[in-house]
């Protein structure tokens, strides 16, 4: 089953068990930043720990006139605090949550879908972040105008989520320019939604399940994105960060130049 085949799951997900102690001790993103999870080569996470800071580099392959290609490095984030790390997440792969701005989180979502290679260069650490608070044991009953909408997600987007987290939902979609040229675009679809449940894949299943608290209009927006097979990512807010603002859609060509339009989405 491929990433583009994300479907709506309108069944209740089982309550997630209490997170292990190492997750409870992880840091929260500072105000204005989002915790964005990345599955990445284990070599990039092995010597990192919560509280470290990294420079996020992206390798961009661009075509040349002689039909060959050239690879160059660009900075995706000059400074990102490490919030959580799991070095043994899967064979050869680590999982890391970084504190990124909303715009940087959109570009990170694009890099994942384009399958661009990312490097995390450790830099001088910043001030210590507040400790994570343990989530309540069970979600509350829904009010009259509230909905619990569940979607299937890749496990790397579910692993660090717990009931009570507040998230922005980032959607990456295939757009088209004049002349029919395609380029991936990342948009912040919805902001400050509450996670009701987050469950890992069961048995041989590939997909995890995330249930979000939405109102009827938000439910329509999210259902439309899932029906259009857009890839969804979840950027976690700090526990007291409720501010919302407009976030301009992101395209790699806007940040890295016209050559960065090359897109290899995981369809």
Keywords:
267 residues, mainly beta, five-stranded antiparallel β-sheet, disordered N terminus
Q: How would you characterize the overall build of this protein?
A:
The chain has one domain (about 5-260). The protein is built from five helices and ten strands, in the order H-E-E-E-E-H-E-E-H-E-E-E-H-E-H. The chain has helices at about 20-25, 100-115, 155-160, 215-225, 250-255; strands at about 35-40, 55-65, 70-90, 95-100, 115-125, 145-155, 165-175, 180-200, 210-215, 230-235. The strands form two sheets. It has a five-stranded antiparallel sheet, with helices on one face. Strands 6-9-8-7-10 form a five-stranded antiparallel sheet. The chain is globular and about 60 Å long. The model is unreliable at about 1-20 and about 265 (pLDDT under 50).
Q: Can you describe this structure in just a few lines?
A:
With 267 residues, this protein is mainly β. It is built from five helices and ten strands, in the order αββββαββαβββαβα. A hairpin with a 5-residue loop joins β2 and β3.
